[in-house]
Amino acid sequence: MSHFSMIEARPLPGKKSRSISWRSREGRSVIYQIVAILSALALVALLVRNTLTNMRLRGIQSGYDFLFQPFGFDISETVIEYAHNSSYFVAFAIGMLNTLKVAVIGIVLATVLGVLVGVGRFSANFLVRKICYAYVEFFRNVPVYLQLLIWYLVFTEMLPDLDQAWQAGHFFLSKNGVSFPWPVWQLGQTLALIGVVLGLVFAMVYRRMARAHFDRTGHTRPVWAVSLAVTLALAVLGWLVGGAPNEWDLPKKGDFQIEDGGAFSPEFMALLCGLVFYTASFIAEVVRSGIASVSLGQHEASASLGLSKSQSMRLVVLPQALRVIIPPLTSQYLNLTKNSSLAVAIGYPELVSIANTTLNQTGRAIEALSIVMLVYLTLSLLTSALMNWFNASAAIQER
Amino acid sequence: MKKMTQTLIGSVLATAGLLAATSAMAGKTLDQIKQRGQIVCGVNTGLAGFSAADSSGNWSGLDVDHCRALAAAVLSDATKVKYVPLTAQQRFTALQSGEVDVLSRNTTNTLNRDGSLGLHFIGANYYDGQGFMVPKGKITSAKQLKGATVCVQSGTTTEKNLTDFSRANKLNLKPVVFEKVEAATGAYFSGRCQAYTTDASGLASVRAKEAKDPAAHLILPDLISKEPLGPMVRRGDDEWFAINKWVLAGLIEAEEYGITQANVDQMKTSDNPQVGRLLGATEDLGKHLGLDKEWLARAIKTTGNYGEMFERNVGPKTSINLPRGLNNQWNKGGLMYAAPLR
């Protein structure tokens, strides 16, 4: 990082004069493309106009005005506050947040499991290797819809009724789901969270400094330990400054359900398990092919440097494999998010479930579905953008 | 270059083709049906007593009987019906788009649906109310369900009634909403929910057909809503609307005048002038509907009068075992009151 080799920027190719004419190849190609785009636009305009006319002729009302009318029915699990007079808009937001909740947690867990299984397929241990192989073949080849139904069946049939709920301290497990104590959110928790964010910023800066130090002197610094310690210290500091709140919302047994506390419903758990186990099998294959793409010479070279097997995997092979892994990994993340829409089958109130109810209460099918499409499109583009940025940072840096 | 030209021509042709295809609009439903030789009837995917298919694919039930009576009246053959099983979510779009001619699928008549979907209710063929089913033992009234989890199917009036009831009585009920009725009842029977809610007739049907031990489940006496169920048609075809409306009314009136599947032929010679009118023996009422004289006589011969339809499909002698209640004739304490066919 200390010195750059200066390479002259290549001069831009001279601007060719482009005339739009049938004679030149470029000219024709531009004209063809304009015509193609125009006819595509005309097609879309025609479809929209035709749909609206048909709906008007048949007396079907349309428009998005319903979004600000009260939703009028309850949602069993919500991330944000939901009042009895909340609008359809808020309901859609809740649906989207429920989708995000399962997608984000699902992506993290599926990645961890997928990488473990993918790496496991190169294990020297026969049993580990075969188990990982069997895992991939099983979960990849059974339709995810079926897996969701099976998980839901497991959670609703196998777990005990509420009356005989398994209890360990303040933790409950029953057909009602799993319930656990949850901190009552106060200033202290907010400050602790700010402390964590500051700690992460520090970690990034410190890592960069350590890298510079290593480049200069060849000595390493304990990046992980220091970062972790500072982050923890800042979090604790924030919590103490905020008055060290220690109030817990404890679950307790009611007549018909475990009340209060934090909880994961059986619907959420079934959806999460289904998505994680299914997607992880694909991620494992992505990781396996990534590792396989790194030439054997790299393993041998790192071994000859005296690196252990895990060091060689972590420091030499995986960073190179990442370039092959990240693009298909992005698709798997997108798949997981979109597959969460199958949750309508098992009663988890995510985006599509809310849209279905809306569609049936208001009859605005096109409007409700257009919102669903817009949300999924936005989520997908965001995921892609994030992964592309990650991909660019993992790409080969040519110096 | 050749490829580009092909793409261009392709897209232009596609646009032109779409222009040509979209100019067609739905014509008169009756003409289409006659031309096709078949009525396309949207029914429930499976609700014993109302519309359900047996193992050899024959449909039966109260809602199915409306389709059969229509086919008898219009096409002189009760078998000329194509049944399209629809979920709660598909049903309105299927009717709006013209995929089915009539929707006969235990659908509640509400202002919202009547006014905004471009559809018309033709009348009620079953007066119902929303109820709850619970495992026997713990409670005896819906008001005791405080904090309970309730399984429900999405896309029905049920969802909203449940919330209204929960709020009015401060019950804090938790709905778990499923797309398919089978999933909702499955979750209830597995013990995930403490109650299952839908129209009382639906509860009776589910308990009779799906419970491992029907006696272990109690349908609570509380009815929390009015659910007049009936068939629907598209707006904008008054002739077809009228045929549907008067086939339903005719079968109800047939019961009032004691015309049954068995005696319909003898009754044609009845001294009662109204019976003569109904069966086309004296006056020709069918011509006002674009049909022939015998339209109602054929319908009665196919399905029997309304009372017979009720007894055969859902009445006390069937496993569904629903009392006649609100669905009795107006002069016997019920709400079945057909405008006179004259």
Write a short abstract of this structure:
With 399 residues, chain A is mainly alpha-helical.
Write the layout of secondary structure elements.
The complex is a heterodimer of chains A (399) and B (342).
Chain A: H1 25-57, H2 88-120, H3 126-141, H4 144-158, E1 166-168, E2 171-174, E3 177-180, E4 182-183, H5 187-217, H6 223-241, E5 248-249, E6 252-253, E7 258-259, E8 262-264, H7 266-292, H8 296-304, H9 309-339, H10 351-362, H11 365-394
Antiparallel strand pairs in A: 1-2, 2-3, 3-8, 4-5, 6-7
Helix pairs in contact in A: 2-7, 2-10, 3-7, 4-7, 5-6, 7-9, 8-9, 9-11, 10-11
Chain B: H1 2-22, H2 29-36, E1 39-44, E2 52-53, E3 59-60, H3 62-75, E4 81-86, H4 91-96, E5 102-108, H5 111-116, E6 119-121, E7 126-128, E8 130-135, E9 149-153, H6 157-168, E10 174-178, H7 181-189, E11 195-199, H8 200-210, E12 217-219, E13 227-234, H9 238-256, H10 264-267, H11 273-278, H12 295-303, H13 306-313
Parallel strand pairs in B: 1-4, 1-5, 9-10, 9-11
Antiparallel strand pairs in B: 2-3, 5-13, 6-13, 7-13, 8-11, 8-12
Helix pairs in contact in B: 3-9, 3-12
